[in-house]
Design brief:
The chain has 234 residues and is α/β, with parallel strands linked by helices. The chain has one domain (21-230): Alpha-Beta Barrel (TIM Barrel). It is 44% helix and 16% strand. The chain is built from 10 helices and 8 strands. The protein has an 8-stranded parallel β-barrel, surrounded by 6 helices. Helix 6 packs parallel to helix 7 and helix 7 crosses helix 8. The longest helix is centred in the first third of the chain and has 14 residues, at 38-51. The protein is globular. The mean pLDDT is 94.
Length: 234
């Protein structure tokens, strides 16, 4: 991020009255490392409550959680590759809801997107939506760094048509990269406020978080939440 971008992000933050509390309230405090233990998750939950984040996001095998209080529980589905059969993703989502998940972040089949098979993407999202109906919140991870602008737009439209609540940039595990300002802006423009936009993957600084919010992100996926919030004011 260049000094010019940092200055612009700070200026936009001031214009929208961004504070520690307001940013924390849209954060999914995330722990998705493969070796994470129950003790790690307990520490994550305690930190989320201390920081005032919206939710914690953990792997489905670590559910159910205890001691979350007002903090919502999110989990992932078809993670991180997305290369799972739709019925497998649906079954995983249903199990997670039974285990107490309030929100499901599902990964699309990336190969379907890169080969233009968006009707099939809509169908797999719809299968997960049926398995995890409202009021469960469904976020659709499109792995935006691996897609063209046209594919990003088509993936967002498929998610909306299938009944998703959010579109989300990235898993954070794809070699193409994580969230970008350009992708968030394009996704926000495409869904037009009808769906939320979650920026996730590689957001490690206050400045990066502010840029994502200014670009249109309405939720942030962060693993280093405390570090990001330290750069903000009350």
């Amino acid at each position: 991020m260049t000094p010019k971008h940092l200055a612009e992000a700070a200026e936009r933050a001031l214009e929208t009255a961004v504070t520690t509390v307001s940013v924390a309230s849209i954060v999914d405090h995330t722990l998705l490392k493969p070796g994470s233990t129950a003790d790690d998750v307990a520490a994550l939950v305690a930190e989320a409550r201390r920081l005032g984040t919206y939710s914690v996001c953990v792997s489905p095998s670590l559910l159910p959680l205890t001691g979350t209080g007002d903090v919502k529980v999110a989990t992932v589905c078809g993670f991180p590759s997305g290369a799972h059969h739709a019925e497998v993703k649906a079954a995983e989502a249903a199990r997670s809801v039974a285990d107490g998940a309030d929100e499901i972040d599902m990964v699309i089949n990336l190969a379907l997107a890169t080969t233009g098979r968006f009707d099939e993407i809509r169908a797999e999202i719809a299968a997960v939506r049926a398995a995890a109906p409202a009021p469960v919140v469904l976020k659709v991870i499109i792995e935006s760094a691996a897609l063209t602008d046209e594919q990003i737009v088509a993936a967002c439209r498929a998610a909306e048509a299938a009944g998703a609540d959010f579109v989300k940039t990235s898993t954070g595990f794809h070699p193409a990269g994580g969230a970008s300002v350009h992708a968030v802006e394009l996704m926000a423009k495409t869904v037009g406020g009808r769906l939320g936009v979650k920026a996730s993957g590689g957001i490690r600084t206050t400045e990066a978080a502010l840029e994502m919010i200014a670009a249109g992100a309405t939720r942030l996926g962060l693993s280093g939440t405390a570090t990001v919030l330290e750069g903000l004011t009350d």
